[in-house]
Amino acid sequence: MAFLEIEGLQKKFGAADVLKGITLEIDEGGFLVLVGPSGCGKSTLLNTIAGLESVSAGEIRINGKRVNELHPSQRDIAMVFQSYALYPNMTVAQNIAFGMEIRGVPKPERDKAVAEVAEMLQIKHLLARKPSQLSGGQRQRVAMGRALVRRPQVFLFDEPLSNLDAKLRVDMRTEIKRLHQSMKRTIVYVTHDQIEAMTLASKIAVLKDGVLQQFGSPAEIYNRPANMFVADFMGSPAMNLIPAEIAREGNDTRLKVEQRSGEPLSLALGEAGAALKPGKVVFGIRPEAVTDPDGADRTSRNVVEAPCLIEVVEPAGSDTFAVTNLGGKEAVVRLRADAKVSPGQTAMLAFNLDKAVFFDPETQLRLT
Amino acid sequence: MSAASQDNAARTGVIARAAIYAVLILFAVYYLLPLYVMLVNSLKPLEEIRQGNMLALPQQWTIAPWLSAWSTAQIGVQPIGLRPYFINSVLMVVPAVFISTMLGAMNGYVLTKWRFRGDSFVFGMMLLACFIPFQIVLIPSARILGLLDLSGTVSGLILIHAVYGLGFTTLFFRNYYEAFPTELVRAAQIDGASFFQIFRRILLPSSGPIIVVTVIWQFTNIWNDFLFGSSFSSVDSIPLTVALNNLVNSSTGVKEYNVHFAGAILAALPTLVVYIVSGRYFVRGLMAGAVKG
What is the mean pLDDT of chain A? Predict the structure, then answer.
């Protein structure tokens, strides 16, 4: 039995369906990331777990206990808000101790707990300050301190890093990961940033329009996206989704991809193609699975080389991204930093077909 | 050349500034003149006023008119001065301001942070209360005070003023709390704070500016009210404004203008004091740091 279970959860605001039957679960000590574009319902889902929003149908269980009817303070959860939500009239120490004060924890005990948390987050020197005297990163730490001091069963994070600048965000991300590894508590984390989702999660739930698109480990989500939305949403640069056709030639299954000029590409799919029916498909391939031949993954079983016309070259320092046109769409490929390509030139590209996924153009669902 | 034009610019600056100050001083004198007239004449013996020159400083300074206005002047049939009525007004204003401000804050809190079905309708109705003229509610109010057995009492006046002020105080607090981050309320809920604890510990401490605004507004309105005071008071609950009218409009005896001036200043003094004292606490930026701003 999982630690946090969400079953058939529905939420309606008047006539609007915000959550349409979400079922999820996460084991104790797991890190569940809810990810999706704005308005997909991920924050609402978090608020229902917190008890800040009621649910229209379904059940939420924490450690086997139904919590639907419990007040937020009785669910044994702590939440870190996007805006930090520090009480402006209290000092940092009072902010952290407020929950304990409300529960009537004696003062010496409160002070001890505050000191412990301040130590852990390195905010000891800030305890006497008001939130208005703190920087964004410091406020973020205090907000986490207020959650940590409760020692809850489940931590809830609502886009905690979105108000920080880029560098600080990466630092705090690492810090959250470290805290999670040392505390081994269950975390539910909402973000619209797919990199945060990939780096932090032990399980990712991708939501869109209140519907759970896919639920799985970061590797599953990344390598075997359930549909074209997930494929497009997760990963940066996004997965190339190229209209293509499956054709049988004798015992061979080949993938035909139109090019802007010259012959269509014809890639041998090998054994992976055996399960595919001939006809139109959407060929999904991540930029890093298409490389210059010398940069191809040697451990991969099925690498096919083909000539492609390079249209744009974007050196990014660590890699060089090139844009080519496949099946009438721009396709981004990732070459080594010092790969010799120039715009207008036709270069051999190595397609790592082990990493290819195929979608039904109609249903947008993954085939095989 | 550039030095010359700079010199020019500096000189026009001085002239413009002088003109601005001249105009400002002129208006300041103009607006302060009535206060000056009241003040100097309240410190003169009556004979000096009778001689005419209202703007002159007293030849013989005296505080006798003030003492008379405060404790011995003839008001109605009794020579007791304004003091008892001043006390009546204080007894009426302080609870009425406190009650209407607290209820307004509570209303604002509920209307913004504990939304319910039809909340905007309720708010709309309360807003409407701000636009109802006093005269319309006189007779219903009299009837209700009669039913509650509060006619002619200070408590009755407190009730009327508190209820009448509720529309305004609710409007003030509702608009202020609308901008108050709801996430703070949610954080406090998760911390286990109750409805009233959130109000008292989180919202009220951050409400300084709007409390000051509301208190100034309510205090000034209730203290200066004449209509309700004259309609719903009886002998021992007459507020200062009505007493002042009785003092000034008495049809018997000599018109003691100096006493009238002193009485009028006495009646205006508390609102001035409230404004000056609480205006100092009218600070902004109490919310800074609550959320990313």
Answer: 89
What's the whole-number average pLDDT of chain B?
Answer: 86
What does the pLDDT read at residue B280?
63
Average pLDDT of the residues in B188-209:
90
Answer yes or no: is pLDDT of A61 > 80.
yes
Contacts with A73 from chain B: Cβ below 8 Å: 189-193
Residues of the domain holding B57:
3-62
A240-359 CATH fold:
OB fold (Dihydrolipoamide Acetyltransferase, E2P) (2.40.50)
Supply φ then ψ for residue A284, to 5 degrees: -105, 125
Tens digit of pLDDT for each residue in A153-172?
899 999 988 888 888 888 88
pTM of the model as a whole: 0.79
Total domain count for chain B? 2
Give the pLDDT score at B206: 86
DSSP assignment of chain B equals -HHHHHHHHHHHHHHHHHHHHHHHHHHHHHHHHHHHHHHHHHTS-HHHHHTS-TTSPPSS---HHHHIIIIIS-BTTB---SHHHHHHHHHHHHHHHHHHHHHHHHHHHHHHHS--TTHHHHHHHHHHHTTS-HHHHHHHHHHHHHHTT-TBSHHHHHHHHHHHHHHHHHHHHHHHHHTS-HHHHHHHHHTT--HHHIIIIIIGGG-HHHHHHHHHHHHHHHHH--HHHHHHB-GGG--HHHHHHHHHT--SS---HHHHHHHHHHHHHHHHHHHHHHHTT----TTTTSS--
Q: Is the CB of A87 less than 8 angstroms away from the CB of B188?
A: yes
Closest Cα to residue B225, out of B149, B138, B150?
A: B138
Domain's final residue, options B12, B31, B62: B62
Residue B279 confidence (pLDDT): 66
Reported as a pLDDT band with limits 50, 70 and 90, residue B285 is very low
Contacts of B197 in chain A (CB under 8 A): 102
Which of the residues B183, B191, B286, B287 would you substitute to probe the A interface, choosing the one with the greatest number of A C-beta atoms within 10 Å? Answer: B191
Residues B90 and B51 in one domain: no
Percentage of chain B modeled with pLDDT above 70: 92
Q: Where are the domains of chain A?
A: 4-233, 240-359
Q: DSSP for B184-229, please give it.
A: HHHHHHHTT--HHHIIIIIIGGG-HHHHHHHHHHHHHHHHH--HHH
Tell me, what CATH number does B166's domain have?
A: 1.10.3720.10
B206 with A89: Cβ contact below 8 A: yes
Beta strands, E only, chain A: 4-13, 16-26, 31-35, 57-62, 65-66, 77-80, 154-158, 186-191, 203-208, 211-216, 240-249, 252-257, 265-268, 279-285, 290-291, 303-315, 319-326, 329-336, 346-352, 357-359
Closest-CA residue to B65 (of B265, B272, B243, B270): B265
Domain A4-233 fold: Rossmann fold (3.40.50)
Residues A358, A368: Cα–Cα separation, whole Å: 8
B143 vs B160: CA distance, rounded Å: 12
Instruction: Give dist(CA B254, CA B240) in Å, integer.
Output: 21
Per residue in A247-256, pLDDT (tens digit) is 888 778 888 8
Three-state secondary structure along A45-65? HHHHHHCCCCCCEEEEEECCE
Q: What is this model's ipTM?
A: 0.80
Nearest by CB: B290 against A72, A103, A131: A131
Partner-chain contact A85 B291, CB within 8 Å: yes
